[in-house]
Amino acid sequence: MAKILIIEDDRELAKSLITWLEHQHHTVEHCERGFDALERLKFFEFDVIVLDWNLPEMDGPSILAEFRKTGADTPVLFLTGRDNISEIETGFNTGADDYVTKPCDVRVLSAKINAAMRRQTKQYAPAICFRGLKIDLANHLVWKDEVEVHLPPLELALLEFLVRNPNNVFTTAELMQRVWSSDSEASPDTVRACINRLRLKIDTPDTPSLIRNIPKVGYQIDMTGDTTEANRSASESDA
């Protein structure tokens, strides 16, 4: 599951892409104008950006150039009717990771989004297994001790995000930015409650939680089961 921003002024096309990507369990947000998109990108982070070439106010390459100036390395896929070599070259030189030509096949777009995420997180295995948990990232399925665990979308999105970023610690504010939609009314308590519900479903009793709480810092997936002081149980005070 990914948090995706679509920057596209064709509302019908955007609607069809959103419908398909949400069906693929992604969280999708939409902007029609370049300045609106840049403003949203100042405050919220996304896993992948799908960017149209021709937009009101600013064209796609200009938006991407401004975005890359901030140092952001979020994968960007151009969505364009242009297919000549010089314009494709311009897109890549501006900082694009890939492109899809219109009219686009949603299955191709979805496959390229998944490929971009794998490159970004260097997570190429179709499934991740650790401490009795198995996560099929391609099909968004989870098993605990070989028994399938049915997770609602937000809990699944949170788990997949942490697993894709195993070396990082995230505060509740960062998790809100990366997992919840920017127009949601989520709060730090919302994040903590989601983590606690998830722990109840994936943790093994009397063992360190799979989601490590580092007091006053944040949360991190724990793939080793380390029993150091930093690896507090779910019952201890949250970050």
Describe this structure in words.
The chain has 239 residues and is α/β, with parallel strands linked by helices. It has 2 domains: 3-121, Rossmann fold (3-Layer(aba) Sandwich); 127-221, Winged helix-like DNA-binding domain superfamily/Winged helix DNA-binding domain (Arc Repressor Mutant, subunit A), CATH 1.10.10. It contains 8 helices and 11 strands. The strands form 3 sheets. Strands 2-1-3-4-5 form a 5-stranded parallel sheet, with helices on both faces. A 4-stranded antiparallel sheet has the order 6-7-8-9, with helices on one face. Strands 10-11 form a two-stranded antiparallel sheet. β3 (48-52), α3 (60-69) and β4 (76-80) form a beta-alpha-beta unit. α2 (34-43) packs parallel to α3 (60-69), α6 crosses α8 (188-202) and α7 packs across α8 (188-202). The two termini are 25 Å apart.
CATH fold label of the largest domain: Rossmann fold
Which homologous superfamily in CATH is the superfamily of the largest domain?
Answer: Response regulator
Mean pLDDT: 88
Main sheet: strands, sense, barrel: 5 strands, parallel
What is the name of the CATH architecture of the largest domain? 3-Layer(aba) Sandwich
Features of this protein?
239 residues; alpha/beta; Rossmann fold; 5-stranded parallel beta sheet; 8 helices; 20% strand
Question: What secondary-structure arrangement, pairings included, does this model have?
Answer:
Blueprint: E1 3-7, H1 11-23, E2 27-31, H2 34-43, E3 48-52, H3 60-69, E4 76-80, H4 85-94, E5 98-101, H5 106-121, E6 127-130, E7 133-136, E8 141-144, E9 147-149, H6 153-164, H7 172-179, H8 188-202, E10 211-214, E11 218-221
Parallel strand pairs: 1-2, 1-3, 3-4, 4-5
Antiparallel strand pairs: 6-7, 7-8, 8-9, 10-11
Helix pairs in contact: 2-3, 6-8, 7-8
